[in-house]
């Protein structure tokens, strides 16, 4: 048996160009543009990280349907429009085929056949079906091993596919009225009168350990009244509307909101709680770092997403020590999975091997307080915050030098445990991979931000100035040590990391932009850092590279050592604006919005790092997730950066200092939630008008005196 491990060195399995992804919660379906799921590929219907359909191919008299177009007005449903292959000697076909697909707790597909000809049409329509019950890890890596006992049963109108393994069973029941069912096909004898139509509905329901859920899309209920539709309506009603005169940017913002909506996941044990998944198709699960950064970047449009994410992560915070899953008391998870096979890769259903999610969790709780989230729910998170900070100082700082380091505990763990977690994600200027333990530059910044967040929580919710002072002192001491250890005076930038010998890993990387974001960078070095990030070695015209082109390991077609990541750039822009480099931040924002326009309004997880002068359009990275949560959140965060907006509810202060490109003015935002209030905003000629503010909240271009993620 092949045992999968987290130190997989390749990129995720390739998704072919033109593939269509439909998503609802943690369920998704990946198919061809025709609607077919082709065996032997990474396509399929995935539920709880298991592929319950690995083949779903429609044939009319043995021929595939020729695809015409796909309509996906909602991310959980799509209409695949095609036509029958023309008969011999004819140029065109008169048979139109519509496949209306709905994805939820299973799948429903309504097939409508329209005869546009003048004669009655008759043919055999056969749906070929199979399920390998492959685990998501295996599918995305292109290696699915047959495990357990597979069984096929069928009745006159139902096909049952089942796998039993390790005391668990996974199954799928496929049913349709009017079908003749065999072990691997559903056959329909179709007769369609001239100018008439014929239809059927096919249902796929998963069976998990003998339990079959109710269908998400029953035929006797309008789709608009189903749970996915109701949830989307609620999301749209509570999410602000942003209007700008530039229709391209308007489309980008609309697409981001729609994608974030589709990437929400609900806890089956607590349906009212909502968190954000990392991205489609492979990461429709709760991720520590990804979910937290997405939540932080979307506080301005929907704080409930951030609050739900924080509460979900707190619920699964580490309590014991496990070397296989790398669980430690107080540690925030890296990734959660649901499949039976997840134990092969994770050692369990949760893997904790990340250095950054734990301090980022503390920052998130502090920002929830600033944005006016329910103080009782925020207060309930403080014990989890304190456990997270205990992890930082005892397990994170394993050698007591004041810095958080990582080194995997077993050979199954991730070699790199920051956001650049591929095997070569951290290199020195010559291109060499350093030995561990590794102390990343951005992680120290996150710890600095976590200490300051804890101080604010102590002041605002606990009336505890002594604790507030203690954590501010810790932040100040960390900043001093950080300067001594990470600053490279002969280079003009901070090291990406310290290696196991406490020597600086001297490459120029985008990670230093995260240090700006967190506020740990010394004022006297900030200008040099800002200029390095926008230098020709780093800035492509579409964004800032992950690694400078002058570095030994640079590869613009790599995952982490020369590519451009939208979320990385949004964080960099926020950091630049925090230190007052408005022009630098605006250049990054314009570059990223320009790239989004080239991708049709949707930013992918990453793109290749070629310079804009080399190729006129951004070059896609072939295995990038799309939609992807923190990429979808990037335009939202960039808008906030350009507005210079940051509330601080504990001090009744709203900073608002817009510096918008002319093409984005006038800008209006309707329905921003600040605490219990709903606020509207209009910006003309960089002058802002705000209505609906809670009583007592002041508006100023100046930062809040307490310090926040916009100011030093």
The best one-word shape is: globular
The overall average pLDDT, rounded, is 91
Q: Determine the structural class based on helices, strands and strand pairing.
A: alpha+beta
Instruction: Just name the CATH architecture of the largest domain.
Output: Alpha/alpha barrel
Q: How many distinct folded domains?
A: 2
Please identify the top-level CATH class of the largest domain.
Answer: Mainly Alpha
Extended strand count: 34
State the end-to-end distance: 54 Å
Task: Using the coordinates shown, work out and report the CATH topology of the largest domain.
Answer: Glycosyltransferase
Strand content: 25-35%
Radius of gyration: 26 Å
Specify the number of helices: 16
* Adjacency order of strands in the biggest sheet: 7-8-9-10-17-14-13-12
Give the low-confidence spans: 1-13, 340-347
Please give the share of residues in helix.
25-40%
The main pleated sheet reads as: 8 strands, antiparallel
Organism: Georgenia daeguensis
Pfam families: GDE_N_bis, MGH1-like_GH
Protein name: Glycogen debranching N-terminal domain-containing protein
């Amino acid at each position: 048996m092949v045992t999968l491990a987290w130190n997989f060195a390749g990129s995720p399995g390739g998704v072919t160009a033109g593939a269509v992804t439909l998503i609802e919660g943690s369920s998704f379906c990946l198919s061809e543009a025709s609607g077919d799921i082709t065996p032997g590929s990474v396509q399929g219907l995935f539920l709880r990280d298991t592929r319950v359909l690995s083949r779903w191919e429609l044939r009319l008299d043995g021929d595939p349907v020729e695809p015409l177009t796909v309509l996906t007005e909602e991310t959980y449903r799509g209409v695949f429009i095609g036509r029958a292959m023309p008969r011999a000697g004819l140029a065109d076909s008169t048979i139109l085929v519509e496949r209306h697909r709905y994805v939820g707790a299973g799948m429903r597909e309504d097939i409508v056949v329209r005869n546009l000809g003048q004669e009655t049409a008759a043919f055999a329509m056969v749906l070929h079906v199979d399920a390998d019950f492959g685990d998501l890890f295996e599918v995305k890596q292109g290696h699915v091993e047959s495990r357990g006992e597979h069984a096929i049963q069928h009745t006159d109108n139902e096909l049952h596919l089942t796998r039993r393994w390790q005391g668990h069973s996974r199954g799928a029941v496929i049913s349709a009225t009017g079908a003749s069912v065999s072990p691997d096909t559903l056959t329909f004898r179709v007769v369609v009168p001239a100018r008439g139509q014929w239809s059927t509905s096919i249902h796929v329901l998963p069976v998990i350990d003998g339990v079959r859920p109710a269908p998400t899309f029953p035929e006797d209920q309008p789709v608009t009244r189903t749970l996915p539709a109701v949830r989307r309506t609620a999301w749209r009603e509570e999410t602000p509307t942003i209007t700008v005169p530039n229709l391209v940017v308007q489309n980008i913002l609309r697409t981001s909101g729609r994608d974030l909506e589709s990437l929400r996941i609900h806890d089956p044990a607590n349906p009212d709680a909502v968190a954000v998944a990392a991205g489609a198709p492979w990461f429709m699960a709760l991720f520590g770092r990804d979910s937290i950064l997405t939540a932080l970047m979307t506080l301005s449009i929907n704080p409930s997403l951030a609050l739900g994410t924080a509460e979900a992560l707190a619920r699964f915070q580490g309590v014991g020590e496990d070397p296989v899953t790398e669980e430690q008391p107080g540690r925030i998870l890296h990734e959660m999975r649901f499949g039976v096979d997840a134990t092969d890769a994770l050692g369990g259903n949760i893997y904790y091997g990340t250095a950054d999610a734990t301090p980022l969790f503390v920052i998130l709780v502090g920002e929830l307080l600033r944005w006016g989230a329910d103080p009782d729910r925020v207060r309930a998170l403080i014990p989890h915050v304190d456990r997270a900070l205990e992890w930082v100082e005892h397990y994170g700082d394993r050698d007591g030098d004041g810095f958080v380091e990582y080194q995997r505990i077993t050979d199954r763990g991730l070699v790199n445990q920051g956001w650049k977690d591929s095997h070569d994600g951290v290199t020195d200027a010559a291109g060499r991979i350093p030995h561990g333990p590794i102390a990343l530059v951005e992680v120290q910044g996150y710890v600095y931000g976590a200490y300051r967040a804890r101080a604010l929580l102590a002041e605002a919710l606990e009336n505890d100035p002594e604790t507030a002072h203690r954590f501010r002192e810790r932040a100040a001491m960390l900043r001093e040590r950080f300067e001594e250890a990470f600053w490279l005076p002969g280079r003009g930038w901070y090291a990406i990391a310290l290696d196991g010998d406490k020597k600086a890993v001297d490459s120029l990387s985008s990670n230093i932009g995260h240090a700006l974001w967190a506020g740990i960078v010394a004022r006297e070095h900030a200008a040099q850092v800002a200029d390095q990030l926008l230098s020709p070695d780093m800035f492509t015209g579409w964004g800032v590279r992950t690694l400078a082109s002058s570095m030994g390991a640079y590869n613009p077609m790599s995952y982490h050592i020369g590519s451009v990541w939208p979320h990385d750039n949004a964080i960099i822009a926020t950091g630049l604006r925090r230190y007052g480099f408005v022009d630098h931040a605006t250049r990054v924002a314009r570059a990223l919005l320009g790239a989004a326009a080239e991708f049709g309004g949707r930013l992918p997880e990453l793109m290749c790092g070629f310079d804009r002068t080399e190729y006129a359009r951004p070059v896609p990275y072939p295995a990038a997730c799309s939609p992807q949560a923190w990429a979808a959140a990037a335009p939202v965060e960039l808008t906030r950066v350009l507005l210079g907006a940051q509330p601080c509810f504990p001090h009744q202060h709203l900073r608002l200092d817009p510096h918008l490109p002319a093409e984005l003015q006038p800008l209006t935002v309707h329905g921003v939630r600040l605490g219990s209030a709903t606020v509207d905003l209009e910006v003309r000629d960089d002058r802002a008008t705000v209505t609906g503010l809670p009583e007592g909240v002041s508006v100023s271009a100046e930062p809040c005196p307490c310090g926040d993620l916009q100011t030093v």
